[in-house]
Amino acid sequence: MKRALYIGIFSEGSTSKMRGEKLKSLLPGWQFDVIDTDIPFSKQPHLFRSLGFRYKTGPVIMAVNQFILENLSFDHYKLVWIDKGIFLKKSTIEAIRSKSEKLIHYTPDTAFYGNRSVMFNRSIDLYDYLITTKSFELQNYRALISGHKIILTTQGFDSDIHTPSVSFESKHNRVAFVGLGEKYRERIIQNLLDNQINVALAGHKWNSFVNRNRKSPFLDFKGTSLWNQNYVSLISSSYFALGLLSKNFPELHTTRTLEIPACGTALLTEKNEETSAIFSDQQAIFYKNFNDLVSKINYYQQHLDELSVVTNNGLNKVRGGGLDYISILDKILKTIL
Q1: Which of 88, 99, 167, 322 is deepest in the core (most CB within 10 A)?
Q2: Is the pLDDT of residue 101 over 90?
Q3: 163 within domain boundaries
Q4: 8 Å CB contact between 196 and 213
Q5: How many domains does the chain have?
Q6: Is 160 part of any domain?
Q7: CA atoms of 52 and 64, how far apart (whole Å)
């Protein structure tokens, strides 16, 4: 029997678990094993977890690597898929390499900006293929490994989870955003509130922003974490949702770029070479600047028939465009196996 091993975070609501489950479904007849790296990570004190995230060092690194080595139960795997392996030491990757016929690394995140890891750089040549969603990092990969090992793909969405949960007629007249707080994002959402546009907000690092706007009748803060159906419900029940790109690195599209239209909601996003390659002007609402964003929202609030068309077009695009995890992973498997 062919055996596959998936190493990565496998906790509920994580995109890595979504990918892992879809990968398993694409390998019928295979024995599919999982080493959930969130198990040793979550047992560590908050200080150690923070140290590991920021500096890729400390007890959490030791715990994750030891857990993986202890759970390498078999001597041979046809396929080992590592999802976001920035905590893994070269010695750990060497141990996995010795047991794997094909060793794959996948990350939907940056590998050479905020998530950069000396451990990853030292072990990168041990992989057969490295899959990235970040076109702006291709030169970084090519500086370390042969180009034939690199696979560029888009972000994805889970077609079983990210689906419309309410009808268009039942939506709230508001803009939703779920994501990490950044100064640039604060300025965008502040501008919406100042223009009396209702905003439903969720995510980490918004505490000071929410406190400054605690008296605003236009802000509805939903908490730091929204997963699975709670996330889908907030997005799907809103007329609009922001697909804000990070300004901490030159991001050109993100998971929200695809999840929002998949939830049956109009995507508000910047136009760039990647977002415009995925969507036309009839499938998403592109904006040029803060004022243009407000103008577009005001226009569609007054033309709900047109908004309904854009929303439906966006939904049909992501559903039929090979942008779900099953379609993306199926294409990758046909390349690597």
Answers
A1: 88
A2: yes
A3: no
A4: no
A5: 2
A6: no
A7: 10
Tell me the two tokens of residue 179. 């994501």
What is the per-residue pLDDT for 69? 97
- The span from the CA of 311 to the CA of 230, in Å, is 20
Domain that holds residue 47: 3-152
Q: Which two tokens stand for residue 22?
A: 């879809």
Within this chain, do residues 15 and 148 fall inside the same structural domain, yes or no?
Answer: yes
Q: Which of 24, 20, 23 is nearest to 37 (CA)?
A: 20
What global pTM score does this model have? 0.95
236 and 118 within one domain = no
pLDDT exceeds cutoff 90 at 31: yes
**Residue 137 shares a structural domain with residue 266:** no
Interacting residues of 187 by C-beta distance below 8 A, sequence separation 6+: 290
108 three-state secondary structure: coil
Q: What local confidence, expressed as pLDDT, does residue 114 receive?
A: 85
Q: What is the CATH number of the domain that holds 83?
A: 3.40.50
Write the pLDDT tens digit of every residue in 156-213: 999 999 999 999 999 999 999 999 999 999 999 999 999 999 999 999 999 999 999 9
Q: Can you state the angle between helices 325-336 and 15-25, rounded to 10 degrees?
A: 60
DSSP-derived 3-state class of residue 244: coil
Burial label, 109 (beta-carbon count in 10 A; 0-12, 13-18, 19+)? middle
Sign of CA dihedral 337, 29, 88, 90: negative
Task: Give the residue-averaged pLDDT of 107-132.
Answer: 96
The distance in angstroms from the start CA to the end CA of the chain is: 15
Is pLDDT above 90 for 150? yes
